[in-house]
Specification:
The protein has about 190 residues and is of the alpha/beta class. It is built from six helices and eight strands. Strands 1, 2, 3, 4, 5, 6, 7 and 8 form an eight-stranded mixed sheet that branches. The longest helix has 10 residues. The protein is globular and about 40 Å long. Keywords: Magnesium. One of its GO terms (molecular function) is nucleotidyltransferase activity.
Length: about 190
Amino acid sequence: MPTVGAIVLAAGFSRRFGSVKLNARLPGGHSVLEQSLLKLQASAVSDIIVAGRQELAALGCYDCMLQLRKPCRLVITEHSELGMGHSLAEAAKVIPEHWGAALVCLADMPYINPQTVDKLIKHSRSDRIIVPVYQEHRGHPVCFGADFFLEIANSQGDSGARHVLGRHVTRTETLEVDDPGIIKDIDRPGDLE
């Protein structure tokens, strides 16, 4: 089984939320980002790269990274206002050589079960893209094998790595999971409940 790390996209602008989403508190008391990172920490990912932006760092959004037991690196993205693809590209440029695959995670999806992450890791391969599916709905995180890292590092716009998925349909596999967390994100304050 290859070493699999996680890239967490955490440089968004929370336009629909109305305030800084990453710092919003969930019913258990953790922030949205903290809960997302704790779920990854409870999984078999080797280490974590968080793609963030300077304004959110100044607000303390990434301070929760200091509590993690797994190696976690913050990459401040230069052009996050141009879309998620730019943040992903900058994070992908610092993927360690020992990673055989990378889970691309969204910071506003704190309900993903660590066992789902482990299942994705177990099925990962350097020449495959694995997409989790819950009740016929595709979700996150998506696991990209090392063969796709260069393409991910050239991502642009607001579609993240969707263009990579589109180009490699025959090398993309779906994986059924019993986890509604893969399709449940935080867009508005009501989603915190």
